[in-house]
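[step 3/7] fold_predict: job queued, chain A
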Amino acid sequence: MPVYSPELIQVMRAALEEVMTKIPHATPGIKAHMAEIILRAAAEGHTTYDSLIAAASDQIQAVISMLT
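[step 4/7] structure written:
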């Protein structure tokens, strides 16, 4: 299991909060799903704010389609 520095955890948390502002009517389950996407991206080496936002943003349409 990957180990993340406190700084990277802060970056991941900030990226998650930013992405969540782009999803209307998000539920806690949707937020958990987006957090999982960000964690997976970080495990694959995407550790900057911008790269984590990009990885999660790529999945927003799929998540929104789950809402409808």
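[step 5/7] annotate
The chain has one domain: 6-67.
DSSP finds four helices and no strands in the chain.
exit 0
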